[in-house]
Every structure is written in structure tokens, then in C-alpha cells.
UniProtKB/TrEMBL annotation, chain A:
GO cellular component annotations of the record: periplasmic space
Name of the molecule in the record: Copper resistance system multicopper oxidase
Start and end residues of each Plastocyanin-like domain: 39-138, 221-314, 453-571
Classification via NCBIfam families: copper_res_A
CDD domains: CuRO_2_CopA, CuRO_3_CopA
Organism: Marinobacter salinexigens
TrEMBL record, chain B:
Superkingdom of source: Bacteria
Organism placement in taxonomy: Bacteria, Pseudomonadati, Pseudomonadota, Gammaproteobacteria, Pseudomonadales
This protein's name: Copper resistance protein B
Pfam families in alphabetical order: CopB (PF05275)
One Gene Ontology biological process: intracellular copper ion homeostasis
Signal peptide feature range: 1-22
Organism: Marinobacter salinexigens
Keywords: Signal
GO terms, molecular function: copper ion binding
InterPro entries in the record: Cu-R_B_prcur (IPR007939)
GO cellular component, one term: cell outer membrane
Amino acid sequence: MTRSLMAGVLGLLMPALALAGEYNISVDRVIIDTGDFVKEGIGYNGSSPGPVLRFKEGEEVTINVTNNLDETTSIHWHGLILPFDQDGVPGISFAGIPAGETFTYTFPVVQSGTYWFHSHSGFQEPNGAYGSIVIEPKGREPFRYDREYVVQLTDKHPHDAGRIMRNLKMMPDYYNRKQQTVGDFFSDVSEHGFMTALSDRMAWGDMRMMKADVEDVQGFTGLINGKGPDQNWTGLFEPGERIRLRFINSSAMAYFDVRIPGLQMTVVQADGNNVQPVNVDEFRIGVAETYDVIVRPRTDEAFTIFAESMGRSGYARATLAPREGMEGPVPELRDAPLLTMADMGGMHGMDHGSMGMGEDGMSGMDHGDMDMGGDSMSGMDHGVMPEQEEPAMAGMDHSNMAGMDHGSMMMSGNGAEDPFYAKGSGLVPTAASGGKFLSYADLKAQKPLYEDREPTREIELRLTGNMERYSWSINGIKYEDADAIKLQYGERVRFKFVNETMMTHPMHLHGMWSILDTGAGKWNPVKHTISVQPGTTVYMETEVDAPGQWAFHCHLSYHAASGMFRKVIVEGGPEQGNTAGVEQERVGGDV
Amino acid sequence: MNNLKLSALMLAVALSASQVMASDMRLDDSGRKDALRLWGVQFEELEYRYSDDDEELGVWNGDAFYGTDELKLRWLGKGEYAIEEQAYETLENQLVLQTPISTFFDAKAGVRFDTPEGPDRTYGVLGITGLAPQWFEVDANLYVSDEGDTSAGLDAEYELLLTNHLILSAALDATVAFSEDEEIGVGKGLVSTETGLRLRYDLIDRAISPYIGVVHERKYGDTADFARAEGGSTEDWFAVIGTRIAF
């Protein structure tokens, strides 16, 4: 009698219990074999990448993380909305997981989609400590697919990450083997004439900038799901099936341009949030971003997933095939892009005096001369454009830019345009097939997470740095010298990123969503990582709905480590729990 | 009564708020908040020289540092060892502190010890080092010796990338003395120049780069006279072979 009552009570509790999962992860020293080289690294459950964690929306997860290293570790759940003390950033969320100990994370899963996890301690992540997260939604997905694969990219380097950092600090061009040579100079001479080629070199030399400075760390092997190009990770399919590919860029430094020759990709999700489907031939995935695409191979043949790094110094390759062992053709790497003066647009504080160019003339170079017409620009009026009345735009008169004559300068921009790149930028991507290349401007939220409302205030974050010293910062201040950014619970903050460097920075705010302003109003896509291209200004808005303190940084490992990092403190708010309604009595350190 | 309840409630809220604040105040003690401390060792020149007078020299020009972006301790060493005579023609060691003064330049201050064959000297050093426009690496120093003599040195280097691995570097070192120090063979005015052209190949990353090259050394004015009086040469051409090291 009592027993049946108990059973009855248990039965009533079952639905709740069913949505609680326990997971065990060990952090281990592992051997990583890329096919090109073998090295020691850090992994999870004995391998790098670690496992695919499969959660369900609404599940209360318990994750026991055992640190088998001889140093402190941590796991950050990249893109997950959770109480701050579960976010896994040592020194900000908690104390870290000491060597030999087990830390138990518990948090409710309040979202669905593709995410990833990685160590936030030292250089463990570039050394291999990363894995993926797939969260099944409560309801039906707004698209159909027959099978799915995680496609996790990384840029595995033969050098230990600590050594890479030291080499970059000693010689910022240590790994750059795409620099302009004497031969390049003479081919410029034959193409543009001696004086033009010379004045181009002199203009860059004056700034002490290299137009080939696109990829800081070269010499890596691109991996997909831990497999190098020769090891060829293969996903099987039956012709006619719809395959959902969950692309995750877990690189330390490399952006990838991804395509599958012969297949059109329908982008259905970005950074874990569904977007209105866009058909593309190719897309660029920034470090730490995710894109879910659906492809439908109808023929009985193998297709190559080809991911060239943005600087074309390496690539990752995998195969979709009806049967194991089949291979599609592997394309050649395209030519490396070169930065143009347009990409230098935001460089305040550099020595422009000798270029006969006022500082004012230089600031606002980014978009001031942007052609506002054209289809690609429609709807972009407020998105990435600096407001016309901004003081920074004063002095946009190009006539005062001696040596900046765009006609005679060698603007190697390919003529392609994307509102999220400076006009005339050398980095604007184009599809190898000649077809559609995804732009941020194409991303529209499938279902807005938040009501669209006016931001309560704007915070300007200038992305700054000094390539020659390999020091990176925000508003000219490195993390070591910076105060925390303080936000008030309940406000909606508009962040203005002004990229004053010549590098692309994938900016990642922990704990709260980044609503990228593409000019689509309430349909602006909701992301966790936002790439800010050189010489551009990009806006994002954040509903400050998660109390506690959070990390906010450039996700390029060596940029974050050398100062492009901030702590964000959210003040006020419910004394218990965040929007997820979780009790928040755990204040780090519980083991 | 109601007021009392209200204030008790407010107190409770204030207390719990302060608790939240206390937990918010975790300071970042992860090490991320500390300046990156780095080290490096580099030998720009580590070479064997063979002169047009059949003189053989072992020569190095290296430096090592430890520190942060803001402050580095740097050792700089130069040596010329005459193989046949088994004697140091030059042996300089500098210990300096280095700090940024502009986007591309650092200031240095420290001491230099010269302990070659013959009389020794100790100098105070003040210098700047950095990257000038058009990619010239520049290092300029002012020296004051323990004898009260002042001199200045300028090093400039330029690299030409024949390919991304085959690199031609041109280096010019010049020394000027503002007063005479005859004991060590230094006359007032332009003392000496050393011009080198080296063709290197980056064999292992940028860590090991073997090179061959040619070096021209010349003494001027009174310094040249002192050298002649000692029976030494005032102008030498060297063929050099060596390797650049950075780790």
C-alpha cells in the first residue's frame, strides 16, 4: 500500500525527473594527431575535441568536471544563458577547478541550438580543451532534416599556445609567411607602374603596417571534428536526405570561409538562435561563432566540406558521402587577401602626420564614403553606419588626404561589398562559385527573443591595439589596467564597437545575448559573438537580464590574453536567480 | 507598527543586497589580471668571420629580456673573439631597463661593461630603440664612461624579403665619440662604422636562421691613427657565416 503510494508519487514526479541529466567530463592530457603532426594537448574524456554534449531544453543539468591536469582548469559553456557562478571563468565566475578536484556545475538549460564549451584557463582552449553542445528544443524546429552532424573547426598549431604568445610578443610577424616580398613589389610595378607601387609601399611603411597582416598565427592544420585534411572526417548520408550541419569555429585565431562545392547551403541558425533561412554558397565563420546549415545532396556522390582560413594560410577539409571511403575533389586555396587603406580607416593614434592626413580626415574613413544605394545596402541605414552628425565624421573631405588618392593607390579590394566591411576593404569575401556569400546583413531572427525597444544608453568600446608590440586593448586600456564595465539590471545597453585596428575581432559577451544591429529592427539577429571588421563600426544591443559578473572579450586567444578583455558587472536585479529563475546561493568554489 | 514592518523589510532587502554585492566583488585572481610576463633570447649575429687579412673572428650580438610591456630588463651582449690570438677584441655587456615612450619606441637606461683584451671601461647608457617609418629598426645610445668620456652609437637595420623565408638584411652600426679616450684607442669624432649585408634562410620557424654575408669595418680620424700606431688595421672586409637564433 505504502509502496504503491510511493510509486504513484514517483510517477507524478517522473516528468520533472526525466528532465534532469547528469554528465561526467574529465579534463585530460591527450595526444592530438592532425595527420601533419602529433602533439600533446588537453582534451575532455580522453580526446580533443571532447564529446558532443546533448542536452534538452528545460533540462536541469548536472555536470561533474574532474580535473586530471596538474594545473587549475575550468569549463565555460559558450553561449549558454545560466547563473554567472556556473559560467566557468576563473576569477570572474568562480575560483576555477584545482588540479585533481571535481567541480559540479548545475544549471537549467533554457535555450536550444548549437553551442560549444571550452576551458577558460590560460591557453588550455587553443591547446585542445574544447567540445560541442547540441540542445534539442522543447517544441518543433521550424525546419526539417533527416540527419545531423556537428562540424567543429579548429586551427591546430604544432606549437604550444604559451610559446605562440611569447613568439608573437617577441616578433609580431613570427608566424606571418604571407608578407609582401621583393617579387610582389616588382609584380606591382609591372601592374601599376613604378611610382604607384613605390608610393603604396611607402604609405604602408609610413604607418609601419603590413597589408598582409590578415592572419597572425599561420602554420596550423585545420581540423574538422579533430581530423586533419588527410584524415578526412566523413559524414554519411543517403541521397535525397536533408542534412543539418552544425558548424562551430573553435579556433584560437582562424576565421574560416566554408563551402561545399556542388551543394547550396541553407543557413537556419546562427550562434544557437534560429534565423530566417538564407540560401548561400559560402559563409565566413568567425572564431567562436556557430552556423547551422541544411544541405540536401541528391546524387550518389561525395561532397567536400572545404573551409579555407580567411588569410588562406591553411584549410580544413571533410567529406559528406553516401559510403565510407569516398572522396570529392578538394579545391585549391585561393589567393590570400590583402588589407587596403580602407581597412586602416579607424586607426587613430597611428602616425598619420607623415601621410599628410589629418586625424579628422582619417576617422570616419570607414563608412563615410559608403555608397548608400544598392540592394545590399537597403535597410542598413542605421545598422552599421556611424551617424552622419557625429563629430568623428567632420573632415571627411578626401581632398585633404595627400597620398590617399584612391585612384592611384592600389586598392586591392575585389569590388565586392558588404556593409559589415569597410568600403574598399580587402577582406570582403566572395563566393568561390561566384554565387551568394553570407553577410551579417542577411541574418534575421526567426523569432525575436526580446521585444524591440529603445536602448537606455550607449557604451562605446573602441577596439584598439598595437601590432608591433602585439598588445591589444579596449579604449586603449588593457584588461590588467581596466575597471569593470558596470551595467544596471533591467537596462538595454547599446554597445558601439569601433574597430581602430587592422585585425578582425570576434567580440564575445558572456551571460547575455548580443543583438546585432543589422538595421532589421525587431528582426535583428541574436548572437553571442560578433565579428567587428577593421575600419568599421558595429552596434549591438544587450538586454541586461543576468545579474552577476561576466567576461567580455575578443575571442582570438592571443588578443584576449594580451589585454582585449573586460569584466562586466551587472548591478541590481533580483536578489535570487537570474531570468532562468534559478536559485543563486552557490557562490563559486563549491566542489 | 506598519512603519516598523516596512523598515525591517527594507533592512532585510538591504542586507540581502549587500550579500549579492559581496559575491559580485570576486576579484580576478586568475592571473589574467596580471601583466603578461615574458622572456626571450635572441642572437641577431652568431658568426664566424674571415677577413681579407686572413684574420679569423668569432662574433656575436645578442640580447635576452624578461618583463612586461611596461618594463623589461634586458641584457645586450656583443663580442669579437680573435681566434688565433685567443683574445677578445670586443667584449661588451649591457644591462638596461626598457620602457615604452611612444607607439613604436622604447627608452632604455642602464650600464655597460666593456672587458676586452686591454683596459676595461664601465659606461652609463641612455638610449632609444624601436621601429622607424619604412621599417627601419633603430637603436640609438648615449654612453658616459667611468673616465668621463661621452660617446654615441647608432644601429640601424633593414630587412628585404626576397621570399618569405629568404631574407636579406642590411645593418649599419656607427660610433661617435665626443671626447678622446686614447687608452682604449678612441679618438674624438666619428670612431668607426660596421656595415653588414647578410642573407639568411629561416630554417626552423624564426628560431634558427643560418646566413652568409659580408661585413665591412672601418675606423676614422684619430681612432684610425691610434689603430695604425698600434700596428692594427683601419679597414677590414669579412666574409661571414653564421646563424641567427631566437627562442
